[in-house]
Structures are given as structure tokens and as C-alpha cells.
Amino acid sequence: MQEQNIIPTDAKWASVIISAPVKPDEFMAVAASYDKTLRYGAQTPFNDQLESHWEGGKWEVDATHDSIITAGNGGDKPAQAQVTLFFNGGTGKYQIEQTLAPDQQLWLDLGRLIRDRVPDKNGNTLPSDLTSGTYQFRDLTQSPGSSLFEGKVITDKTYGHAAYGCMICCGHGSGFMWIDPLGVGAGYQQTQTVGAIDNCDGNPYTYGWEYPNWWTGNTSIATASTQQINGIAAGATGDFANGRINTGDGMTYVQQCPMDNDSPQGDTNVDDFTLSGTASTFDGFQGNFTIAVTGGTATNYAWSATAPPGAGNNPSVTFNQPHNASTTTDAHWFALPNVACGASASSTYTITAAVSFNDLTSPISKSTQYTVKLPPDGGAVFDGDADVAGAPSMAPDGSGTWRVTSIGTLHRVVPTNKNILLPPSSQFYNKIDQHEQVHLNQWIQGPGHLNGDLFLPNTYMGYIVDLTGTSFEDLTNKIANAKAQFRSDQLALALGRTQQAEQEAYAVSDQIAPFYAYQNNCNSI
Amino acid sequence: MRLLILCLFLANASTLFSQTVANRKVLSGEEVEQLWKDQQELGDLYKRTAASRFVIVGISSKTELIDERGAQQGRIDDNVAGALYTVEVEDTICKQEDFPLETRPNPNSVAQVVHLFVPIRPPVEGIQRKESLSQGGRYLLFLTLPDQEQQNTWKKRFTLDPNGMYYRGEEFARGVIPLTKPTDKDPAPKQPAVLDKVVQLCQAVGKRDRSEKITALNLLATSPDPILKKEALEALRAVQLSPE
Question: Which of A170, A180, A456, A457 could bond A53 through an S-S bridge, CB–CB 3.0 to 4.6 Å?
Fold first, then answer.
């Protein structure tokens, strides 16, 4: 065929595939190669077995022997072939890996490897006095379907003998889910694979790549993709795979590793929890956060909080029960941007709950937002609490006309209550408290106090001393009206002093930390 | 003798003023103060009750400061527009629909919580002071419900719940009467006299059947208590004038 240029004349090897419409074992193909004299030749049967794991017998190299080992890719995708030579009773190992395109083969002349001291993939060489060993082929590609075929020829120069050496097609037993039961968090993925017992060495290996079809029993709980289970929602279901695998017995040199259908199955448990808590509160108050486990068995709880980059004023969240399913927190406003004036009144943390489960190797996490706000106002002293209380003495004169006769029990009442919006645990409490204390002090009677001259009984007497009534009731009604006028006039005076009142109060509170938000020079936060 | 005379002023002041002070030469400040206090609490009882949407006993559970909407932020106390008091209702003594002139069913007759909003401005409203409640304090409250226009104005201007309903005291501070809180040592402390009187009046007025109501008020009108007698007669007149 080379002479007729059907095959290139320089071709040194080829993969040959022969097919015929016959039943198994009815057709036998043999490849034979002879020299030009047709005196010397060798024959080898065609290999009809593709496998991902082959175990070979003895190879020999010495003055009269040489061994040639081949492995080819009989699949339709590239294969990563690994050849391992074992020697010195299995203590020595020499490995070569090569990517084989479909129909490509690798060719190892062991005598040459020894003589030329050719290093393997790890830099090891075969001992120069090495004469024999065993070998193994593996397909490392991990894709569905086996692809390697093998061949070995030992030549004996003594009598011109060439012996074909059969390998054992190992195959493996029925598959089982490698992780069973498998735990996965809702919204998370977990790698799954299929394990099976290698029929040559009796050890379990993973063969998930040989199973192209994956599914679960309930897609509302979990879904599956190739070698991966995806948690959807809390619950329990099954995970399944299906593929065609080589099931040789690992003992017979005759290549019998038939492709059998295999469908391993296992259990999947999806772990999940819900996270709820305080969405928003004011500085100094308290937050509450709760984890409710909806699937699986929790073994640990961990809480953490983060603030946006650039946040100032020492952002932090203290979890009072850091390893419990429910925890309370403090509420600490942070400044973003980190400027005294102009930071947002709302500071939002991200609260993260991480829950460990007994069937997961790492915790699953969920987050929620936690906003700590500052109110536009921090507090207030109500000037309207100021008054003149009590009553004057009253009596009818000789004509029966009722008059105010003296100041009686009239006395000054001033605001005494500081209404502070934020609780004592607020970082701004002292600042606001001191500010409002200045306002209270402004009502102390006497000079040096801004409103010390307001709501004086004597001033009030000026409004009522000349009132007269035809009766006690008549005079009472007139006094009530005069009182309203008096209060209106006095509060108007206080209102006119608001700017000065605030300047005095801010002069004190501006010196008290935190120096954010409630500073006199802040027009807005 | 003076104390005895003062006790008589527990009756309606407009009546008692003339009776009590007719022969007096001078009323001291203390005497005037007591008369005014009694008048403040006990005077016009029927009128005040009828003008109230509810008369309740309740505990002031929360005090909040309310701001102007869109107020300049970052001020410690410049933006406060008023105080909002939350009151947990212990007992509803009177409902406005019990009175003959009120025919509308009250959708909130079983309210468990009521809110009083007391705006700072105007600083003076009428001759009465503004309402003020201490957190945790127990009160007899005569509550009026400002009209829808006023409610809407407040909700638009101030940081109040748009779905809330905000009351005022009837005649402002006059509608807020502090009560004594029961304690373990004194589970039934002596309360201001107005409490018992308003309870009796409301029990009579609250009869659903007209004839039962008239009978109850007639009975109350025979009371030796001059205040109850006067208020019962006033209630009777209102019932008799109302259509059957």
C-alpha cells in the first residue's frame, strides 16, 4: 500500500481498525510483519479492548532480549496516557506521560530507555543494570469511555523469537457514590464522584468521569451536573449517575472487560438556614439576629460584620452571643465618608452568619444588612414647660369687686427635663446630654443665665394685678386669659433667643467626642 | 373650718365659687390654687366627657420626639416639632358614641394603644398648657381626635406615621389627669375624685337602651354628690333633647 502511495511511503506505523458484520469471536484479526526476505517476522493479534487501566506482566532487557511496549488511543478524544514501569520488586518506579491524539500511539523501547539513560517525567532514570520488571497503563484523562489499547513484544536474539505479551484488562466493580450520604448547603455546590474497586489491586478508585449522566431525585431540593451536586433547598433526596464501564475480573489475560451499564446512587442532604434580624435601628440601641436551621444538623455558629471600605468612627458590631444561634448586638453608627460633617446619617453593616453542619467540610454563610442611624435631632428641652404656677391671693373690695391682692403662691416653674432621643449606651449620649444641660441651665433664675429673666412671678403680676371681676369666677376667667397672654409673650422672648441659646450649647457639646454629625458647623450629615 | 369649706369646692366650680366665696373677705393663694385645681379637674365634667372621643385610663409607655420632615440633619435639637406619647390603654371609660349627639360608630372603640401628638408650635394654645405625660405614668385621659385636615397636615409636615391616628387632650393639659399607680403595698391607692365621678357618669350614659340610660341618669341625679347630680341632670337634658 506504501508502494502504491495509498499510505505515505515514510509512514513507520499506523493504527488499523477492522470491522465486520459478525458475531463476537467469529472473526480474528492478526497483524504480521516480516522483513524483505520474509524469513524474519512477528505476529500479534488485533486488540478489541479499550480500557483506562491495564496491568502488564514481565518485560525483559538484557544482552539477548529487548522489550517494546506500546499504548494507543483508540478513542475519539485525546487521552493522557501514563506508563509506569515497576522494577526491583515494585520499589522502583519509572513514569512517562504523553498526550495521545485519537489513533496515536506511544512506543517505548525499554532497552533504549535503559541504555540511553532517558529520564522520566520526574527526572528518574532506569538503572543501567536493570533487566526486568512489570508495567502498567493508565488513562488519566478522566473522560467518559475508555480509550487505551496496549501491546508488548519481547524479542529474543538467541533464537530469533518474538513473544507477544498480553496485559490484563483490569476493569472494576460496580460503582458506588464516593460520598454517601453527601451533604451540601443550599445555594452551594459539592463535588461528587463514583468510586469502584479496581479488580487488579482491590483498592477503591474514583471513576466519576466514566459517568456522563447525573441527576437527583428531587430537583427542588438538589440538582446535579457532571460530578457535582447543587444544593437548592433544605431537604433530603437521592443522587444518581449512569455510565458504561469496563467490568473485567482483573485476572484473565484474555481481554475480557466488557462495557456494562452502571447506575450508582446515594443520598443527598441539603443543609440550610434562614437569617433574620434587625434591619434598622438608632445608634446606642440594640440589634437582634437569629439563625433558624431548616435542614441538617448545625454544629457551630459564627457571626461577623463588615463595614464598607473607607468608613470612619471605628465601625464595629459586637455580638453578645457570638456562638449562639441568636445574638444581640450593639448599634454603633459609623461615618461614611469619614468626615465630621457630610457623612450619611445611615450606616449599613453587612452581618454574616456562618453555620457549620455535621456533614459539611466548610460552613455555609448568609448575610443581611444592618443599618444604624442617627436621628436628625438628638434631644430637646421644651421651653413650653416654663410657667408661673400657683395662684395669687384674691378678695372682694368694699364694693364687692374682686381683685388680686398679693402674689399668693405664684412661683416660677422652669424646664427640668432633658428629652434625649438616644439611649445612654449611644456614643453620642454624653454629647447630647451636655448640650441639653446647657439649655436647662439657661433657665436658672438670675443674671448670667440666658432665660433667667423669664417667667418671673413679679412679671406675671404685672399682667394681673389690675384685673377686676364682678365675682371670683369672673376674675378667675380674666386671670386665665391674662396668663395665656403672659405665657405667649414670655415664650416669644425665649424663641427670639434661640440662636444664642444654641451657640452656648454647641460651645460645650462640640468639645465632646464623637466629633461627627452633631457639630455646630455641620449643616447636614 | 377652712379645710371643710374647701372640700365643698370639689363640686362644680361655677356653682361652688358663688356658694363658697360669697361670704369670704380674702382667699389666700393656697385657697385659690385649690379652687382652680378642683375646677380644672371636676368642672364641666359632662361637657368635657361628651367632647372627648374617648375617656380612658392608660399608662404612658413611650415618649418620642418628632421632627419636621426633610429637616436639616445634624442639629441636636433645632428640628424638634413635637412630642409623641404612646399610651397603653388599661380601660376605656367612655366612648363618644355613648353620647346622644354622637351617632357615628367609632372604629377605634377597642383601641389598645393610642398616640398623643403635642406639637411645639404654636407655643401657646388657648388658656390651657400643653399636654405633658411622663413615661411610665398612669393617667385619666380625655382624648379628642383632631379633624382629618389637621391629621393630614401633621403627617405631611412631621415625621409621623402616615397611617397613624393622633389624639390631643380635651382642652389640652386639662384632659391629662395624673393618677396614682397601684403598688404591691397599695394595690388600690386613693385616686383623684374625678376618676370615680367620670366612671359613674359614663356608666349611666353608656347604657345602650334609651330608657335604661334615662333611668340610670335619673338615679345618678339623686346622688348626694352635687357634682354628679349636676352632671347627671345635664346629661339627662341632652338625652331628652335628642331624637329617639
Answer: A170
List, in order, residues 6 or more apart from B57 with CB less than 8 Å away. B89, B90, B91, B93, B138, B139, B140, B141, B179, B195
- The residues in A 161-190 lying below 8 A from B, measured between CB atoms, are none
* Sequence ranges of the domains in chain A: 30-169, 176-248+259-266, 278-373, 379-509
What is the spatial distance between Cα A142 and Cα A206, in angstroms, rounded to a whole number? 10
The domain at A176-248+259-266 falls in which architecture?
Answer: Sandwich (2.60)
What's the start-to-end Cα distance of chain A, in Å?
90
Domains, chain B, with CATH or none: 52-182 (2.40.50), 194-241 (no CATH)
Would you state the torsion angle of the CA atoms of residues A391, A397, A399, A403, taken in this order, to the nearest 10 degrees?
-30
Sign of CA dihedral A16, A20, A24, A27: negative
Which 8-state DSSP code applies to residue A337? S
Which residues, in sequence order, are bridge partners of residue A19?
none
Q: What CATH number has the domain spanning A30-169?
A: 2.60.290.11
Given a contact cutoff of 8 angstroms between Cβ atoms, the answer to whether A389 and A413 are in contact is: yes
Three-state secondary structure of A288-331: EEEEEEEECCEEEEEEEEECCCCCECCCCCCECCCCCCEEEECC
Dihedral (C-alpha) A404, A407, A408, A412: value to the nearest 10 degrees?
130
Give yes or no on whether A30-169 and A176-248+259-266 have one common fold: no
Q: Among all residues of chain A, which has the CA nearest to that of B70?
A: A376
Burial label for B211, CB within 10 Å (0-12, 13-18, 19+), is: exposed
Which alpha helices (H) appear in A110-184, and where do they start and end?
110-115
ipTM of the complex: 0.84
Q: What is the pLDDT of residues A471-492, one digit of tens each?
A: 999 999 999 999 999 999 999 9
Decide: B10 and B193 in contact? Cβ < 8 Å: yes
- The least confident of A80-94, A323-337, A362-376, B131-145 is A80-94
Where does the pLDDT of residue B73 fall: very low under 50, low under 70, confident under 90, or very high at 90 and above?
Answer: low
| Chain A residues with CB-CB distance to B19 below 8 A | none
Cβ atoms within 10 A of the Cβ of B125, count?
Answer: 19
Sign, Cα dihedral of A462, A465, A470, A473: positive
Q: Please compute the mean of the pLDDT values over residues A163-170 and round it to a whole number.
A: 70
**Residues in chain A within 8 Å Cβ distance of B63:** 419
10 Å Cβ neighbour count for B1?
5
What b/e readout covers A403-436, taking b as 16+ CB neighbours within 10 angstroms? bbbebbbbebebbeebbbbbeeebbbbebbbbbb
Least confident range of A1-5, A355-359, A473-477: A1-5
Q: What's the topology of domain A278-373?
A: Immunoglobulin-like (2.60.40)
Cα separation, A354 vs A288, in Å, equals 16
Grid cell digits, residue A393: 391671693
Compute the nearest-CA separation of A406 from chain B (Å): 8
CB–CB contact A406 B29 (8 Å): yes
| Stretch 488-517 of chain A: residues touching chain B, C-beta under 8 Å | 488, 491-492, 495, 498, 502, 505-506, 509, 517
Residues 104-163 of A with CB under 8 A from B: none
CB contact under 8 A, B33 and A409: yes
Chains A & B: contacts with CB separation below 8 Å = 145
Are A377 and B67 within 8 A, CB to CB?
A: yes
- CB-closest option in A379, A476, A480 to B77: A379
